[in-house]
Each structure stands twice: as C-alpha cells, then as structure tokens.
Amino acid sequence: MKDNARVLALRKKNRNDIKVMVVAEDHRQRMAFSDTVRGFGFMLVGCVSRAQWQETGELSNSAIDIWLIDSDYDDSVAIATVASKPAAVLVGFSQAPYLNESQEYAKWQRKLKRKFAQLLDLPILVDAPAYKSADTDWHYVVFLGASMGGPSAVKEFLDNVPATLPICILLAHHFNQAMIGTLPRILNRHNDWRCKIIASSQRLRAGECLIVPIDKQVVCDSTGRVILLDQDWHGEYKPAIGQLLKNTSDVHGSELINIIFSGMGNDGSQYLDLIQDNNSQLWAQDPSLSACPSQPQAIIDSGYCNFVGSPTDLAKKLTDYIGEKAASHSH
Question: Does pTM top 0.70 for this prediction?
Fold first, then answer.
C-alpha cells in the first residue's frame, strides 16, 4: 500500500536518504532483505525480527519511508506503520534463496526491485545500475585462483602489481588448513599489499588482498561486500574456485578480472560456459611456467581464456588493462 503524496515527496529524495525498515522472522530472509535494500542505495534503519522490533520500540517513531514486513501484520504493526507516515508498506514477499545460489538469488533481487519500482511509481529503479557507496575506493575486482605451486606464482604477481591501482584482490587458494595462517606473511613480503584471511563479513578495499578461508564459504554481493557464511564448501575443492568465479562474475561483471595460477586439477573451469555474458576477463598463468600446469591448462582448453603469461606478464597486463580502461572512460 502507498500514499501518493508521500510517494511524490519520496521521489525528490536522494536514494541514500530513503529510510527502510525491515521486520522479518527468518534470519536468511533478513540477510537477503538487508543486502538488497543496501544494494538499491537506500538507508536501512533496521532489519529485525518481530521480537527484536518490539524490544526496540523507538524505531517505530523514526521517519520511515518504506516498511518491508515479512511477519504477522497485526494491529500493533499496523499502528506503527501508520504512525511513521511511510510512503509505502510492502507486506510479505517470496522466500529468498541462499546467497550462494547466485543465479536464483539475483532473480529474487530483481523481483524485489521490480516490486519497489511498482510501489513507488519509479520505473527507473528497475533500470538503475547496482548502487555503490560513495566511499568505494576501487573500480575493479581481481579474483585469483591457485592451488599447488600457487604461493610463489601469486607472490611474483603481487610483487609486480602496484598497490595503488584502483583494484581489490580476492584470492582463493587450495591450501593446508593448518598452514593457511602463514600465507599472508608469504605474500606480503617485499610489496605493499595488505594480505589477510577473511574472518568476518567485510567490504572490499583497494590495496587489500583478501584470502578466502578453507573452512567456510564466502559470497560477494552487489554493494562490494564479501559475506562470510557459516557453511562448509561443497565438493572436492576447498575453497571452491569455480563456485567463487561464478559468483564474482555474476555480481561484478565487466568490473572483474579472473586469473588462474598454477594448480592441480580443473577447479575454476566448471562454470565458464555460464558466465560468458557477464563480460568478465579470464586470464591464466602459462602452463609451461607453472609448477602444476593442469589448472591453468583447463582454463586455456575451455576456449574462453583472454590472455596467457607468466606471473610478471599477468601483472603488466593488469596494469596496462586498468590504464586503458581509465583512458577510455576519460574520453
């Protein structure tokens, strides 16, 4: 339901000034609503269960523009929504898929975006690009996949990539769980990259190389966050490079460069035929220069690889690619 006068007033606001309150019972639903609302660029005032909302009654006195309710809509909720004089109230919505079901999750987000556009009489919202926070300091995501023989190759790559480039790096490396704590120290040496293992959900930052944990899944979202899930990786490979490559490509599209380094097996090549419409770059280490050639070779054999070279060649290619992109945008 909506109030046309308030909808008209809402149109004059900046997106990041539009206040949204979410009340939902299911934790996964709250997480998905939070992710999507922030992805629109709206201000999320609260994202709580009914019990949490009742404990923090002051939220009902805030000037909420939009209520998103996936809970019982009884008299107490109705009174609170009326009191805040919102432009729109959306009651109930379909159950969100898991965040790691990237294709279905993206469809669910688009459906919610269309619903908001309909409620607010703002068709432009459907066509708007993914919102990025004004303080985002990166323009491109570089996803690195590596396995056996990877540390020395990734280290050589990082040593030759300036940490001042407007990029953030996400590294998925098949590694021994007991030894992964040593990886940041190995990679940090002799360069300015800040390498660390992901221990909590966080935002991507330029100059950082975030290392994906072995014992927990992570997924990227459209606002530039890496979300740590309390779930094990599926399948033989941990972390699952192919799963992450698909997720990052679905989310970041043409702002993503994927590079697969030395490793055993074919992890990373499973979903390449599904991501070709995303305009992501796909590069690989020269198998003849890899301690283990099978992983980069699988990427090359797919027919989708855009560039092959040594770790130093890949670093130079990345630096040149970012420079060319910056020059084309300036024109």
Answer: no
